[in-house]
Amino acid sequence: MTSWISHVEWHCRDAQAVADFLTALLGWAFAPHGRRYREAIPAHGPRIGLLQVDVLPAGETQQAFIAISELDAVLAHACALGGGVAEMPVTIPGYGRYARIRAPDGTVLGLFEAEVGLRPI
Q1: Is the pLDDT of residue 32 over 50?
Q2: Strands 7-12 and 47-52: what pairing?
Q3: Distance of alpha carbon 77 from alpha carbon 39, whole angstroms
């Protein structure tokens, strides 16, 4: 049997606001599925789900990272859109860099920039 990640889901206090933020930041298009759920199907990678909840879960340990190029530019754009940097960039020699951003509602999202020529699995 072949397995892969089918989707990544983030719990958000305002799913539409996070969808709007990610659309402006990364160009993803989100479609509503009911009142509390938004879904994007990027050209590459798993589907992205945003579930609106009244209270963000404490102790959440899941973290998905969005593969991007130009990490510094995306961090600056996130801040210009009303988000922020939750964790400054960290370099992993021979692999790439990652950081975490905070969407305007407080949702933390991971970003990963691979070294040139490296395609992480």
Answers
A1: yes
A2: parallel
A3: 22
